[in-house]
Amino acid sequence: MxxxxxxxxxxxxxxxxxxxxxxxxxNQQGTLSQKLAQASVKHQLSYIDQDxxxxxxxxxxxxxxxxxxxxxxxxxxxxxxxxxxxxxVMSETTKEVxxxxxxxxxxxxxxxxxxxxxAEAKGESYEGKKAVASVVLxxxxxxxxxxxxxxxxxxxNAFQPxxxxxxxxxxxxxxxxxxxxxxxxxxxTTKAIYFYNPKIATDNWIRSCKIVERIGRHVFAV
Length: 222
Fold this sequence. Notes:
- With 222 residues, the chain is mostly helical.
- The protein is built from nine helices and three strands.
- 49% of the residues lie in helices and 5% in strands.
- It is rod-shaped.
């Protein structure tokens, strides 16, 4: 009997202890609910986490408070925006203007041209000598020929006096005078870029060029 009474007493103690634990848990839950209800705004749930009837989400900040950021274009973008610059190509017209603005040839150039005129137009009139000098200067200003007196005269197979050596002979006074007038006064007798003696010319190609002048024994053509 004593053992039975002892067991019942222990059971009663355990039941009482369990009731006390349940009461403590309920009290703690109530306290926690009260604390959450009294919590400050900063600890409350956001609009997004609350009920669905909260549909308006506040903006982070007004536009006037947004800092304005200047976009910097990269070097590649700047190059892409810039129009491509075309390469400058000297046309025949540009070359002609540039050459015409050349007011003076060197003494060496004038001497070389005088010797060519003397060799090519020996026995021709003064106008004929001027015409030969004019052809050389017209070639200097033409895009299809060298751009210097020396370059034109010594161009391969251009003038026979260069081939036979008569270019080295001293020029007479008429040839020197004709060159000075054509160069300094710009008094061109012809606009031709070719001349030949039809009686002795053997090149059929030169005969196909358009004739613009006939002075003495020479035909002047373009």
